[in-house]
Amino acid sequence: MVRLYNLHPFGSQRVVPCEREPARFCCGRDVLFVAGTAASCRVEAFALGDQGRCEPLGSFATLGPVLRMAHSQAGDYLVTIEEKSKATFLRAYVNWRCMSAGSSRVCVRMVGHKMEESYSETLKEQMSIVEMPLSDPPLCISCCPVSGDLLVGCKNKLVMFCLKYLVINQNLTVLDFERSLILHIDNLIPAEVAFCARHIAVTTELDVLILKLELVQQSADRTEQCAHSVSTLEKPVDGGVKDEGPSTLTSQLELDEFIICQKPVELLGEESKLCEIPVTLESTELPTEDTKCFQVQYLLFRRFTPDQSPFGFCEDTKLHSLQLLPVFRTGSPVAAHEETENEKELLSLFCFFSLPHVGYLYSVGKLVELISTYQYSEKSEQAVLTPQFLHVITSEKLQCFTVRCSAAAARDEDPYIDTTVKACPPVTLDVCTLRMQLFIGPRAICHFKNHIILLTKADTEDITERRKPTRRMLSRKADSIKSRTNSESEPGWNLYIINTVSTIQLYREMVDYSRTYENVKTESCIHLLSEAHLLVRAAIMYPSFLKSDEKEELLTAFRESCAFLGDCYSRFDTKDYHLALPYYRMSGLSMTEVLKRLVSEGDEIQTYERGLVFYLTHSLNEDLNEELSKESANKVLQIFCVADPVQLPHILCSPCMTNVCPLTAVKYLQKVEKMMPSVVLTLTKAFMALKMGDLMMYEHEMDSYKETVLACGFIGQPKLLRQRKEGIVIPTEFAVYLKEMQPGLLVAATVALHENSKIELEEADTFFKMLCSNGENTVPQLLVDFWEALLVVCSQEEILQELLLRLTSQYVWRISTQELPETKPLKTTEDLINSCSHFGLIFPWVTSIMSLSSPSDKGYHEDISKLQSLLCSQSIDITSVLPVLEPLMEAGNVGLAIRVLCRTRLGKYEEAIEQLLEKRPDVAVSYAQHELKDDSRAVWWNKLLPELCKRARLTGNDCPVLISSLKETLSLVAMELELRDFLSLLPEDGTAAFFLPHLLQCSQRKLLT
Q: For residue 618, what are the contacts with CB-CB under 8 A and spacing of at least 6?
């Protein structure tokens, strides 16, 4: 579908003062080349300036009539196909600008001809004509806008010439060409070729083929082999489209006298290999270390059939206007001269070609796809594609269509552009005609920057018609139209330079035009504003944008267009209402500014569309730094009460709504509660009650549910407890009040948030530290309570070990520094042991050790017991906490218990027994009875018994504890070992009499069992 708008993309026009009738023309960087008809055999050059000013630069003779011509920006050379004596010649005109300086010296040489030393001083002041002989007549040409390489189309082949820069001396560099590659294509007579960044497009009368030359990595020893190799593609698979060559079709016409039309075909990407058009590469450049080896990648093949109509067969159906349009990465600098051309980074590439009544625009960069189809109102003569427009000429009109190149390129540059942060109008947006400008006999067209060059040739009877005042070319800027004053200067042709209006001017007109559709056709309004947005986006994507005088004006227009689109998606009921959010974000408008644009003052009853609600919901739910005024916040309340009352509790918790009137908020919440009561709504009302200082209302709301339900209610809206400002977690007034009055509920709620991935462990640390106003390195008791409570429910091993390590560190720090917690812990050791498997029962021998603790340990009994309980469990990784426990290792009985616990957990039972015998021998047997089991049972007789005997002998009867422990040990060992093994353990120092009564008793007991 093509939309029609009556805009004015064309401004003033000027007539090019050609001395001879134009036949061909093309544009360069800042120059227009015009080749005369067959009688003149000359090319005139004109300098193009601002507002279409055109000044003659000079002219030079050609070998014969020019059939084709093209200019290369890289190298600034003009290449032509000329005819003389029924033969065609390919020539490149280098250093042609010296002709405008008055020099008449011309050097004609063959391509690759070595420069003679005698020319070295004069080459600067003369034009060089480089003749490039070919084995077959050249049919069409194209210059690469990036590299300056030349592609020549001949029958069944394409020949590529590389642009070379030859350094004659430090002050002189001349251009030359080297025939580097031949693409042999069977049964193909090219009508047009296009060449850009190793992409090749070629058309016949009804076929389009797009290829890409891919570099093949070659090792150094294969350079010579690569230079002379012929790379032939594999034969296409069976079932592909059979290509009927021109010779085959001709023979069929001669023999059968009727036309066989093949089926239309479109093959994209990998499928285009099925076209059965084999391409063979032949490298012709001399092998060097820098020799490049290529292979062919098929991108697109399309075959059309002649148009059929009720009036019969149309013989004029032919493709025309083949063009490759590159789009470079945003901000890439435009090359100031040839040597920097390669610095431009290609972002996207587009291919355009046209039939008489329809044009096709494809993206052939990262993804090969059809972007737009252009339906013409009448038969087209020629078309030219620019990043912003498609200009088409018919028999009497110049038409301007919009294009989607900037939309596709924006997505190539940023694949994630269609998000809640950024957006761009779709590539599939309907194209539109901005203008149909009448001209008499348009024949050819080309484009240069913001100028269109148009050649018109009118029939004799049309000349008088043209003079009538009713047939004015352009009404705008009529004073700049240069008219001819005598009859001799008014033949049936004219070459016009039509100045297109600036991007900003056309953008303003589009915006003004869109307002006529605001209340009538919302879809058309959005479409026009999208067109305006893409127009500005395309201008911003020009490589020269960063150096443009309109840079700031274009950026302002870009943001303004985003704001207009945001307004549309907010005000209108459209399926794409969600786009209001990204467009408003790109506009840079604040929420306050958006509200002023959309919401009427004092309007209490209003319908609010989904787009506005979507934008406000997302904006308020994110952690923005903007605080709405009281009036704006209350207006937001009204909007949500009307449009989406369920969201009211969540909206009120946003940091942006800090200044909201709590009384008004409660009034709206009470309305919602009658329809949809919820825990989150109750908590929000309690929050508002605190803001008002109404504690009775607060208590009433909090008593509506049990504490466990309230804790889970915070999961539905964590911002009731904590908010973020500039990335920092900040407790709310609600959290501050709970900390003082209901710390258990606060801790339970925070645990619930963590377990539901609403708050991270580090965030919780910051939250409690800020809440308790402790230093950054100080851990408040409420945070320890949180860790302990989280340990009860935590199931993730990584977090579990982190919590165990943190708690251990905190207990050790308090015990070692004798620092009491600032608030009473929420849970005792007994509570934790009963509710959490990670807190183990404290071993009896540990209790025995601690029974003789010093009075100074009494104040830290809870932390000591919690630490011992952790070490008594099987959850903690003892190796990870050893460095943390180091400060307590020498702290009396506490240190002894910890040392023995650590050695026990590490399986070092003998070292543990030595520690106990050294410090607390009375606990040794109790420890052994509890710990020395199963695989460690042998420690009884291998370690404990010998040590007790040794220490008892040394102390004598002065240590009854050792004697008692020895007796208990002997009783167990005698029951476990055979009599002979037991006897072998007795000391041989004459003290056997001590053991004899006990030995007899144990032996009798053994026999009885």
A: 420, 581
